Structures are given as structure tokens and as C-alpha cells.
From TrEMBL:
Protein name: Cysteine-rich RLK (RECEPTOR-like protein kinase) 8
Keyword Transferase carried by entry: yes
GO terms, molecular function: kinase activity
Pfam families assigned: RVT_2
Highest taxon of source: Eukaryota
Residue ranges with Basic and acidic residues bias: 1-21
Domain Reverse transcriptase Ty1/copia-type: 138-210
Keyword Transcription regulation (UniProt): no
Region of interest (Disordered), ranges: 1-45
UniProt keywords, alphabetically: Kinase, Transferase
Length: 480
């Protein structure tokens, strides 16, 4: 029975009642489910009940005061059925009505930040209904009576549009998420852990999918074409990853959409220092653009060194640092359609990782440090992941190094007096070799692919290595 007060029935703002229509339960959510908290008269409630016999509201428990503890007292607790949190029935706050001119500004193309904005659009209403249906089908939660002294965490609607590689909207997504930020460490939780996939793992999975001649599918949504801003182009014999749309937006945001392109991302032998005496530039803009370039590196290893180099000066950027960023953007402008390709070898051989490692010689003029392409740790992790995906132990990766003394030191079990200054952590690779996790092999300097990741190169050498590491453009991809 609905609770009445002064001849009126309070509008249920948040959840609860009987989820399946037969068993009662209490699920308290401490934030309003709707934008307003207007009250509903008895006549409106009767109209609501006539529209659908499945809509029922549970009265608050008699001992409701016990559910408000010392850390959350004073907050209103509201109750509403979860199976009609958002529905087609005439619910106060969700009734069909004409929109005024100001409300028409909230169009479907925008992502609403509140329920009040989302409920005005049929696309977002449909997305919320789909979310509630999925929650019920997956049996995401079970309604129980909260123990005394505990205050349940509230829920909030979060809205996001999913776009294709051209930027067109393909889906409206609404997610009902917990307001975990109201929890207090030591009271509501002790430890937190949020696993996140590394981009190296994603690239390995895509490469392996094509190598095994499998169509990579994502649930029942069809062939994967767009993932976290990355365009995935699946051909008969290859998979190509590209961020053309993202790169275009980055150029527009930096004001470089109409700039002239250049052949390399960085001048050969360019030297920049943190002690620059040039004029200061907008640090916020500098960091924003460089951060955007860092995400672009996921499918553009050809700009990895240049992006890492300009990232060193984010604390106090100057005009010469900004000039290097603008040159990098000019290169992106000319190669906006470039991406990395994972071809199928087709020889039926077993998958094996090949890793290249190199370093420049004290290239940092500030600290005299070397830029190193460390690869042993990632090689070991990717080998383990590859074994888990294939169901059998993967072959040890080949670590290609162009320094014979370094190879001798790694393989020689005897430490010489002249090598005692090397910290013990640098001998991790020796343990990996002894245990068979990696195989150290020599490669000529002319075939060292890691050069493009550790130093600025001239145009010819840069373009040669860019092709060898698997970078292609749309035109080249069509020719292949």
C-alpha cells in the first residue's frame, strides 16, 4: 500500500518494492531517480494504477530510522519498484508532454548529464529501458533487507553515445552505476582493485585473431569496426588499426587542421632542454595536445619517440617545445589515415613474438640519460598471455639486439670487475635467458627496427623503418 501524508501520497523517487511481483524486498538508493520531487495526488496515483496493474509501490519499513547511520544521517530515503524505474507507464516526471523552446536545446546528439535532460528524448528513454531489461535478465542484484546501521549506496544514470569510425551515432547507451564515491575508506571498504586491459594485450589479441583466420566478434554486435576511438578494418588477410577520426579532431582542437604537412615527425638531431630561455606558452593547451598525441601512439608507433620527447617538457613548456609539437602535428596532418597492420602469414607456422631493443647514447642533454627501448619485461608478459590464449606454451620470444658486448654480458655467467657498477636490476634479462623465457639474438644496426622508437631519424631512414614496423595508409592498403 502506498504511504499517505496530509491527503497526498509522496512521489517515490528511488527504488523499491517487489521485483518479481511475489516477494517483497527493500533496496534503498540515496539519490533521486527523477529530476524533481513533486508530490503525486491520490487521483494521479489511481490513474497510474489503472494504466498498469504491474506498477506497485512498497511502503517504507516501520524501522526506517535504524537504516540511517551516524555517517549519513539527515539524507532522505526513498522507495520505488525496480521493475518500473523507467517504463512506458504514466509515471510522474515521465509523462508525455510538449517541449518548450529551451528544452529543445537538449538534442539526442548530446550526452545528457542528468536524468532530467535524458527523459525528454525517446532515444535515451529507450536506452534506459534496455539497461533495466539487461539488469533483470542477468540477475545483476538481489533485493534484500539492509542490515541495521548500513546505508545502501545510491545509483546514478550515466549516458554515452557510441559512434562509428566516421563519427556518426550508432547507439545510445545508458548505464545505471553505483555512486561509489560516497563510500569512505575504512568504513565501507578496505581495498580497491580495477583491472584494465593494456593496449599491448588488445593488439596481440587482434593480431592473433587474424593469424588464426578467425572473425573477431564482440558479443552479438557483428564485426568489430570501432573500439575506444580506434578504427578496426578487417580484410581477408589482415587487420588494420587506425585513428583517423581521432587524429582529425586532435588537429581541429589544436588549430592545426589546415596546416601544411611534413615528412617526419621530428627534425633530425633536434636537441631541446628544460632550461630553455624561450618565452612560456599556455601549459594547459600544451599538456592537452600532448596527452592527445600519447593516445594516438596506440596505433601510431611511428610518432612514439617524438611524443615521448615533447612529453618531457610538460611541466614548463616554452616556445621551442611548442614548435616541436606543432611539427609533430604537421606530420600527423599528412599521415592522418595511417595505421598499423597485422597481416596473416599463411604459412601455418607457430606464432612467435619477435622483440627489438635499442638505445641512443646519452641523448638527453639535461641529465645525460639514454633513451632505451626496454622490451624484456613486456616480452615475458606477452608470451604468457599468448600461451593462455592458444592453450599451449608459446615459444620463447626472440629479443633482437645490435650490441654484441651487451649480448656477451647477458649470456656470460661470470661477472667481471668492470661490470660491477651495473645495478643488479639490469641483470633481469640474464635470469630470463637462463630460465628460457626469451632468446637473445644479434641483429645488424641497419635492420634494428627499434631505431624509430629511440632517436630522431632522417627522412629516408624514417620512411624505411615506418614501412618495416607495419605502418600503412589507406591508399597503400588498397594497393596491397
Amino acid at each position: 500500500m502506498p504511504s499517505e501524508k496530509n491527503g497526498e501520497t509522496e512521489k517515490p523517487g528511488e527504488a523499491d518494492g517487489k521485483l518479481d511481483g511475489s516477494q517483497e524486498g527493500v533496496a534503498k538508493l540515496n539519490g533521486p531517480a527523477f529530476s524533481d520531487r513533486q508530490k503525486t495526488t491520490n487521483s494521479e496515483l489511481n490513474q497510474l494504477e489503472e494504466c498498469s496493474t504491474t506498477v506497485e509501490f512498497a511502503s517504507p519499513p516501520s524501522d526506517i530510522d535504524e537504516y540511517v547511520d551516524a555517517f549519513h544521517d539527515g539524507e532522505e530515503v526513498r522507495f520505488r519498484r525496480m521493475d518500473n524505474l523507467v517504463g512506458n507507464t504514466v509515471v510522474p516526471g515521465l509523462t508525455n508532454r510538449l517541449l518548450d523552446d529551451q528544452e529543445l536545446l537538449f538534442v539526442s546528439a548530446e550526452e545528457p548529464s542528468t536524468f532530467a535532460q535524458a527523459e525528454r528524448d525517446v532515444s535515451w528513454r529507450r536506452a534506459m529501458l534496455e539497461e533495466m531489461k539487461a539488469i533483470e535478465e542477468n540477475e545483476t542484484w538481489e533485493l534484500v533487507d539492509p542490515p541495521p546501521g548500513c546505508h545502501p549506496i545510491g545509483l546514478k544514470w550515466v549516458y554515452k553515445v557510441k559512434r562509428d569510425e566516421c563519427g556518426a551515432i550508432v547507439k545510445y547507451k545508458a548505464r545505471l552505476v553505483a555512486r561509489g564515491f560516497v563510500q569512505r575508506e575504512g568504513i565501507d571498504f578496505e581495498e580497491v582493485f580495477a583491472p584494465v586491459a593494456r593496449m599491448e594485450s588488445v593488439r596481440l589479441l587482434l593480431a592473433m585473431a587474424r593469424e588464426m583466420a578467425a572473425r573477431f566478434r564482440m558479443s552479438d554486435l557483428g564485426q568489430l569496426s570501432y573500439y575506444l576511438g580506434i578504427e578496426v578494418k578487417q580484410g581477408r588477410d589482415s587487420i588494420t588499426l587506425c585513428q583517423r577520426a581521432y587524429a582529425g579532431k586532435l588537429l581541429e582542437r589544436s588549430g592545426m587542421a589546415d596546416c601544411k604537412s611534413c615528412a617526419t615527425p621530428m627534425e633530425e638531431r633536434l636537441k631541446l632542454t628544460k632550461a630553455s630561455t624561450a618565452a612560456k606558452v599556455d601549459a594547459t593547451l600544451y599538456r592537452s595536445i600532448v596527452d592527445g598525441l600519447r593516445y594516438l601512439v596506440h596505433t601510431r608507433p611511428d610518432i612514439a619517440f617524438a611524443v615521448g620527447y615533447v612529453s618531457r617538457f610538460m611541466e614548463d613548456p616554452r616556445e621551442d617545445h611548442w614548435a616541436a609539437v606543432k611539427r609533430l602535428l604537421r606530420y600527423v596532418k599528412g599521415t592522418v589515415d595511417h595505421g598499423i597492420i597485422f597481416p596473416k602469414t599463411g604459412d601455418g607456422s607457430e606464432l612467435r613474438l619477435t622483440v627489438f631493443s635499442d638505445a641512443d647514447m646519452a641523448g638527453d642533454i639535461d641529465g645525460r640519460k639514454s633513451t632505451s627501448a626496454t622490451a624484456a619485461c613486456q616480452a615475458v608478459c606477452l608470451r604468457r598471455l599468448l600461451g593462455e590464449l592458444t592453450g599451449k606454451e608459446a615459444r620463447p620470444p626472440a629479443l633482437m639486439v645490435d650490441n654484441l658486448p651487451a649480448i656477451a654480458l647477458a649470456k656470460n655467467p661470470v661477472l667481471h670487475d668492470r661490470s660491477k657498477h651495473i645495478d643488479t636490476r639490469f641483470h633481469f634479462i640474464r635470469d630470463c635467458i637462463d630460465e628460457g623465457h626469451i632468446v637473445l639474438e644479434f641483429v645488424e644496426s641497419g635492420r634494428q627496427l627499434a631505431d624509430i622508437l629511440t632517436k630522431p631519424l632522417g627522412r629516408l631512414r624514417f620512411m624505411e623503418l615506418r614501412i618495416k614496423i607495419g605502418m600503412v595508409g589507406n591508399k597503400q592498403e588498397q594497393q596491397d
